[in-house]
Amino acid sequence: MTISLATYRTPTTNRLDSLFDSLFDPFFESVTIPRKRTTATVNTKVTTEDNKYIISVAAPGLDKEDFNITVAEETLTIQTDKEVAEFETSAFTKTWTLPEGIPPDKISADYHQGILRVTVEKPEVTTPETVTIKVT
């Protein structure tokens, strides 16, 4: 069994709707509501290869000089203040927590055709030496 609801309109409600429309429509036609600036959404992708992580950030319309990439402790930050209206690129800041033991000199970045690519080499995994202790 399907139940559907319909709006019941009488001649009186139609007249009231018309009255309110005629009173308020001219007001709302002249009002423009300013667009509120929203937080930037940045398309990012993190992939893993054999010995490295690759962070890709879509940021068309920028130059490589527009990015500020920093590493503090185990936090990688990518930031730009520039906005490019024709690509809807907004200022943004993105951060990632890196695995322990990655020296900053093992991180590189390049920017090509609107994609910033940050490469982070994985830390070397060392296996602890196993020593057998002889019981006497």
Question: Descriptors for this entry?
Answer:
alpha+beta; about 15% helix; about 140 residues; four-stranded antiparallel β-sheet; three-stranded antiparallel β-sheet; 7 strands; 1 helix; about 30% strand
Describe the structure.
The chain is α+β, with helices and mostly antiparallel strands and 136 residues long. It is built from one helix and seven strands, in the order αβββββββ. The N and C termini lie far apart (86 Å).
Short description:
By secondary structure, the chain is an alpha+beta fold. It has one helix and seven strands; from the N terminus they run αβββββββ. 15% of the residues lie in helices and 32% in strands.
Order of helices and strands: HEEEEEEE
Average pLDDT works out at 79
Distance between the termini: 86 Å
Largest sheet, order of strands side by side?
A: 1-2-7-6
**In one word, what is the shape?**
elongated
Helix content: 10-25%
Q: What kind of sheet is the major sheet?
A: 4 strands, antiparallel
Strand content: 25-35%
Rg calculated over all Cα atoms: 29 Å
Number of strands: 7
SS element count, helices: 1
User: Which segments are poorly predicted (pLDDT under 50) over 5 or more consecutive residues?
Assistant: none
What is the SS-derived class? alpha+beta
List the helices and strands and how they pair.
Elements: H1 11-30, E1 44-49, E2 52-58, E3 68-72, E4 75-80, E5 92-97, E6 107-112, E7 115-121
Antiparallel strand pairs: 1-2, 2-7, 3-4, 4-5, 6-7
